[in-house]
Amino acid sequence: PTDIKEELLAKYPPKVARKRAKQIMINEATESEAPPEILANVRTIPGIITMRGCTYAGCKGVIMGPTRDIVNITHGPIGCGFYSWLTRRNQTDAGEDGENYMPYCFSTDMQDSDIIFGGEKKLAAAIQEAYDLFHPKGICVFATCPVGLIGDDIHAVCKKKKAEFGDCNVFAFSCEGYKGVSQSAGHHIANNQVFTHLVGENTEPRTEEYKINLLGEYNIGGDGFEIDRILKKCGITNLATFSGNSSYDQFASAQHADLSCVMCHRSINYVADMLETKYGIPWIKVNFIGAASTAKSLRKIGQYFGDKKLIDRIEEVIAEEMPEVEAVAADVRPRTEGKTAMLFVGGSRAHHYQDLFSEMGMKTLSAGYEFAHRDDYEGRQVIPNLTVDADSRNIEEIDVEADPELYSPRKKPEEIKALEDAGYQFKHYEGMNDQMDKGTIIIDDLNQYEAEKLVELLKPDIFCAGIKEKFSIQKSGVPMKQLHSYDSGGPYAGFKGAINFYKEIDRLVNSKVWSYMKAPWQENPELTGTFVWE
Length: 534
Ligand code: CFM
Ligand code: HCA
What we know:
Among the domains are: 55-180, Rossmann fold; 211-333 and 381-421, 3-Layer(aba) Sandwich (Rossmann fold). The protein is 44% helix and 12% strand. The protein is built from 23 helices and 14 strands. The strands form three sheets. Strands 1-12-11-10-13-14 form a six-stranded mixed β-sheet, sandwiched between helices. A four-stranded parallel β-sheet has the order 3-2-4-5, sandwiched between helices. Strands 7-6-8-9 form a four-stranded parallel β-sheet, with helices on both faces. Helix 4 (78-82) links the parallel strand 2 and strand 3 (106-107). Bound molecules: FE-MO-S cluster (CFM) and 3-hydroxy-3-carboxy-adipic acid. The site of FE-MO-S cluster (CFM) has 16 residues, from helix 3 and helix 12.
C-alpha cells in the first residue's frame, strides 16, 4: 500500500504532493495505538478536480431540500437554482394535506443589473409572490455567491416580510457557495437556522409512546420510508426526521422527543448536542445501513427506554424480518465472497456501506469522504483537538442554553450512569478508520485523477461514488455504483434495503459487461479522416 500512495503522488508538483500526502493514509491503526491523524475539512487545492460540492449545495440541497412544505427560494443567478432542482433523490410523501413544493424551482433569477444595483427589492418581490401563490407555513431564502459579494441583507428582507405576513415563517441562510470548504459548512448553516427559527414552535404536548427524533436521514431512494416502517412496526414514534420526508410541523415539534437518534453524524451531530442542551434530550448514534446494524440500532433504542414491552416487540420484529434477509445473503454469498470494493462518498456513507459489503463477505480496499472532518475518520473523541482555522471560524457557532421552561432532562443522572456502566454509549460515534482493515487506503477529498489511478492500480470489483466519477470508472471496465443517488435504485436502509442491496451488488460484481467495453480510442488511438479536395 505504501507504494500505491507513492504512485498516487508521483505526478504532482512537490507542494501539491506534500499536501495530498497528509490526506492519503495507509490505515495502520492497531489495538494499542490510536489511528494516525488525517488532514480533513481543508480547502481543495485549486486546479484539482475535486468530488466536492459547495456550501449552498449543502444548505439548500441537502438539509432543506427534503422538506416538502417550505418554499425554498434561491437568491441568485438561475444556474444555482436550476442545478439544485430535483437532482438529489430525496423522496417525499406529500401526506394528507398534499402540500409539496419540491417539484418547483424558485429563484430570483438575478441579472447583471441586480448585481450592480442590489437584489433586495427583487428578493422581497419574490417572497411576496410565493406567499400570494401558496400561503405556505414557511419560506426560506438561500444566498448564492454573488449575494455575499454585493452584500444584499437577506436576513433583513426576510424579517420584514415575516412581520408583514404574520402567518408565515420567513428566514434566510447566508450559505454562499464559497462560505466554507465544502457542503459541510452548508449543513451547519442550515441546521443552525432551523434550530433557531423553527424547532420548538409547536407547543402542543405529544402523548405517543417512545418518542424519538431521527437526525441525519434524508430519505434518499426511500431509505427513510423503510426506516419509518420498521420503527412503526416496533411501536417507536418518530416525531421528526431531520430532514428526509419531513414537514414544517415535524421540525417545529422535535423538542417533544425523548431521544435523538443520529444516523449521518457528519451532517448534523451538533444539532443533537443543541437539542440536549436546550431541552434535555439525550442522543445516541444509530446506523440503519446493514441488517445487523439495523437490528443493533433498534436494540439500542429499546435499551434506552428500558421498557420490557418495547424490548420484546423489537426482538419480535427482528425475528420476523431477519430470515428473508439471511436467505438472500446466503444466496448471493458464494458469488460475492472475497470480492473487493472502494467507496468514496460524502461524509458518512463511505463508512456505513462497509457494513453492507461485509455482510456479503466483500472487502473494502480503499475508502474516503469528500468533506468529512477528522472525527468521521478517527472517532468523536478527537473533536476537542480539531484545529479551528479561518475557514471553520467563518461558520457561525450558535450559543444554546437550557430553555427556562422547556428544559427537562429525560433521564436522571443515575439512570444515565447505570446505562453507561452497562456499556451503553451516549454521544459517541466511531471513526471509519477503526473499522477498516490494516493496510487499507484511506483518502480524503479524492479527486478525479487519483480515482482513476486507484482503479488502475488495485482493480476493485466495484467502485462506489457519485455522478462525476460514474462514467470515467465504467469506461475503465469496472462496475460503478452511485451511493448518492443509488442510480435510481433503493431503498438500501433497513431490512428490505439490505435485500435490495445484496441483489444489486451481486448482479454488478458478477456482470462482465464493463470489462468487454472498449472506448473507440482504446482500439484505434489515431484519429483518421479523409481529406477530399474538389
Ligand atoms: Fe450525510 Fe447524506 Fe452523506 Fe451528506 Fe451528501 Fe447525500 Fe452523501 Mo450525497 S447528508 S454526509 S452531504 S449521508 S447528499 S444523503 S449522498 S454526499 S454520504
Ligand atoms: C451534493 C449532492 C450529492 C451529489 C451527488 C453526486 C447528492 O453534494 O450537492 O455527486 O453524485 O447526493 O445528490 O451529494
